[in-house]
């Protein structure tokens, strides 16, 4: 069976790269599907040989040892990536002719307006002010959130306290609407920081770099205060991608990628010392590899033997049910699976979660039929988000949206499926970006009007 697994795994991996190449998705060219593909491979596919051959002691100790379940999960993960690429490419092909006509017409309009737009329009003051205001709003929301938190997990880590319980109370077991607070201090602050970074790269002004520096420390605290490790690495990754997009024509250099990897390891090791209680370098490095390559695969494995043997298929009950308006009781899937797998955490007052790649949640609801159909929806979702990004005409804002939205689309690789049915974060992010576009368009037209009147006055004189 080992040879069969090796053959299947390498065949799927090779087919993914060939298909991506044929569909015009390069692993080195930054696009929203490229970000989804990269995160899916790293977090939800490459680690299966580690599970199959039981190369990680921790995953082996918690019972991830059934080769049949690992084989099924490998096939499902492969199809969840391949299916999305196929659907996305089909939609691109179907819309290519109309898109080209739209791009030509819009380009001519955009070019003509640029010719008459005064130089003052290119000032960075309005840009900086808008995104700094967004950051200030996020700051006040953070203050309101922290006023309802008993202990900050980051401070507990340095004080030698109970980090896991503090993190639980700040996230999964938070008494209140955590997602609304998170929308501001986590998501919108991240977006505004990327926008300020893009502005600093574009305008190269000391003032903009100072604003970005403030946003960097603010966002870093917001991402680290719950003693979670991945968000900070993701944040640095978005800065790296945005720099490559704006300064290197969207091409990822191997040298820069290696540098990012080394920096990530250097940052993660102390985190595992303080947050996870690792006592030596080798143990920390082993935990980094285990969490990065096999952490999300635990859910993919466990969902299979829980549903429907232990729990009947949910038939959509894990999907959002805002205010209980729909005729079903919401089933908190990732929390329930974690409670079943690690009941000792509940005894310690810790509410954990075990999310996984999007097909895992679809399987828990509809079985293997849902797994087969789900990539159609995900491909359409990514295509639609990419289309919305294409509407943005300002290069630095379009680059910011590509990276920020791309990483949110990457949640399909590690955070289930149901979040996309009520995509509040992406929706508010797009609204914020389009508000900026409307403001700049309005200011641009006003300045063009003023410039035109001045020209007429000069002509009369």
Main beta sheet: strand number and arrangement? Answer: none
What is the tally of helical segments?
20
Tell me the series of helices and strands, N- to C-terminal.
HHHHHHHHHHHHHHHHHHHH
Radius of gyration: 24 Å
Low-confidence stretches: 101-122
Number of strand elements: 0
Please identify the structural class as seen in this structure. mainly alpha
How far apart the termini lie comes to 89 Å
Shape: globular
Q: Give the strand content.
A: under 5%
Helicity range of the residues?
over 70%
Mean pLDDT: 87
Describe what this molecule looks like in 3D.
This protein has 461 residues and is mainly alpha-helical. It contains 20 helices and no strands. It has helices at 2-22, 32-44, 48-52, 57-61, 67-116, 125-146, 153-159, 163-170, 178-203, 206-224, 230-247, 254-275, 281-294, 297-306, 333-341, 343-347, 358-366, 368-391, 395-409, 424-460. α9 packs parallel to α20 (424-460), α11 runs antiparallel to α12 and α14 packs parallel to α17. The protein is globular. The protein starts with a helix and ends with a helix. The model is unreliable at 101-122 (pLDDT under 50).
